[in-house]
Specification:
This protein is mainly β. The protein is built from 1 helix and 11 strands; from the N terminus they run βββαββββββββ. The longest helix is centred in the N-terminal third of the chain and has 17 residues.
Length: 169
């Protein structure tokens, strides 16, 4: 883009010229920004579609799954995403998967805050993170541990998912 100075006061002056030759006028730009801002605020939503009650997903269910044919030890670490404070850490023995996968549900031991969930096989050095601040609504999360690391599968729904035991209303 090329910056342009001056402009004709009768056409409200222009801010800059776009490479295809179109001119964006100052009042049109300000008007567009005002409309976008009003639209985002009208439904109590920010520009990304999140409501101002929670700007993150509420983690309501967490399951660790082993898809390998050997038993493994999974390590789980949950931190508050904004402060990096440790919320929960534990290890879980997951039996060998015989027909698909073996899974363990983790008790609801975390607060209703933006969280960073990190999982790994105890034999691996690398944590695989997932942040709830990148999502909305209530989050049900499956961490699948496999030979290549961890894959996260998630679904969201209105809160609460299935029960009120974990951050239900």
């Amino acid at each position: 883009m090329e910056s342009v100075t001056g402009g004709n006061p009768e056409d409200n002056g222009y801010v800059f010229s776009i490479s295809n030759g179109n001119i964006l006028y100052r009042r049109r730009l300000l008007g567009s920004l005002a409309v976008c801002s009003a639209g985002a605020l009208a439904g109590c939503m920010d520009a990304f579609g999140r409501n101002d009650e929670n700007d993150y997903a509420t983690l309501q269910r967490l399951t660790l799954a082993n898809i390998r044919d050997v038993p493994i030890v999974a390590e789980l670490r949950i931190e508050q995403a904004e402060t990096d404070d440790l919320v929960h850490t534990d290890t879980y023995e997951l039996p060998a998967a015989e027909d698909g996968f073996e899974a363990v549900s983790v008790d609801c031991v975390w607060p209703d805050d933006p969280l960073r969930v990190m999982t790994r096989d105890a034999d691996d050095e690398n944590w695989e993170p997932l942040t709830t601040a990148d999502r909305s609504d209530c989050l049900s999360l499956l961490a699948e541990l496999h030979g290549g690391g961890v894959s996260y599968y998630s679904s969201t729904d209105e809160c609460p998912i299935r029960s009120l035991e974990c951050h239900g209303e």
